[in-house]
Design brief:
Blueprint (H helix, E strand, L loop, with lengths): L2 E2 L5 E3 L6 H10 L4 E5 L11 H15 L5 E8 L6 H21 L8 E9 L10 E2 L5 E7 L17 E16 L4 E12 L5 E11 L7 E5 L5 E7 L12 E6 L2 E5 L1 E4 L2 E4 L6 H4 L4 E3 L2 E4 L3 E5 L5 E8 L12
Parallel strand pairs: 1-6, 4-5
Antiparallel strand pairs: 2-3, 3-7, 4-7, 8-9, 8-11, 8-12, 9-10, 10-20, 11-19, 12-17, 13-16, 13-20, 14-15, 14-19, 16-18
């Protein structure tokens, strides 16, 4: 191992630019001042006292009256030691130089430290294990004006919105009063994909505020008609995407008997803003509130909508269809 310190502890880069400086000028423009700090202690990132003098003379004095400037730092290390360690060491030296500029005795209000580049020992042209102080160094480039814009990565192209047709119907269920002012809704719904005609059943259980004696039925509903609705989403929806969906279910106050009712219709709100699987896909449903009628009997006295989740389940056999098995 040959350990030799460089003849200077700091140097104005404009007085002695090397090939890397010329390449830097071509890619970043000419800085207003540039300084190289040499002879960092082997294996250490701390500045020596002469480094602070160089920063004062070549960085602080030219920039102390400026307001819009930015700085790039490039760190180096000698050949001695492991390549990965030297890369880390060179960036730590940059961090120490930045700290001195910002918080040292002659601190500057730098608009931005744009880059800290770790060159490590890769730039050194010396033999392996040589420890030349020229490479135990950090370069400081200070530029006037706004920094160049960063390379903006192109934004990913979002898939186009897909419109699909579905339909929903009530299969049956009931609302009962479980305490003096609370109701329990248990209903079974079917949802159909109108393009594939696939159908799935979903059980809904929710709690609402209702009037009625504890345990007494408030409303009983049977099968109703299909009600169409459309979805608009970044991704194509399947029936399983409605599983575990949080919905609000309300029923108009009214009286029903069979297929005849005075009000008493059901209103389903898929609460798309509350459902993560809908929000991430930017899914919207039209109409936002779906009104469903159902055969049934009883009276509805719910004061507020109930809230609960749809849970996908096997559909019970439709007794109106013959069982050929």
């Amino acid at each position: 191992m040959t350990k030799v310190d460089y003849k200077f502890d700091f140097e104005n880069i404009f007085d002695n630019p090397d090939a890397e400086d010329e390449k830097y000028f071509a890619g970043n423009g000419m800085p207003v001042c540039a300084l190289r700090l040499y002879n960092f202690i082997t294996g250490d990132d701390k500045l020596i006292e002469n480094h602070k003098l160089g920063i004062y003379k070549y960085i602080f004095l030219p920039l102390r009256s400026q307001v819009d400037y930015w700085i790039n730092l490039v760190g180096y290390a000698s050949k001695i030691g492991d390549r990965g360690y030297n890369s880390d060491l060179s960036i730590r030296r940059c961090v120490e130089v930045q700290r001195e500029i910002l918080t040292g005795r002659n601190k500057l209000n730098v608009a931005e430290f744009r880059k800290k580049v770790a060159r490590g020992s890769d730039a050194s042209t010396d033999a392996a294990d040589d420890d030349f102080g020229y490479w135990r160094s950090v370069k400081i480039y200070a530029h006037k004006g706004a920094p160049p814009p960063p390379n903006i990565e192109p934004k990913p192209v979002l898939p186009a919105f897909i419109t699909q047709k579905f339909a929903i119907k009530m299969v049956g269920g009931r609302s009962i009063s479980i305490f003096k002012m609370f109701g329990r809704d248990n209903y079974l719904f079917k949802i159909k994909n109108m393009e594939t005609f696939d159908t799935a059943c979903f059980f809904y259980a929710g709690t609402s505020v209702a009037a009625g004696g504890p345990g007494s039925p408030v409303s009983i509903a049977g099968s109703g008609d299909w009600v169409p609705f459309t979805t608009s989403s970044r991704f194509k929806l399947a029936l399983k995407d409605f599983n575990e969906l949080n919905i609000a279910l309300a029923q108009q106050p009214g009286i029903s008997a069979g297929s005849n009712s005075v009000f008493g219709n059901f209103m389903v709100d898929f609460q798309q803003n509350k459902n993560k699987q809908f929000a991430v896909r930017e899914t919207s449903i039209n109409p936002s509130t779906i009104i469903i009628s159902a055969d049934g009997m009883g009276f509805s006295t719910a004061l507020t909508a109930s809230n609960g989740n749809l849970k996908m389940m096997d559909c019970p056999r439709d007794l109106s269809e013959p069982d050929w098995a």
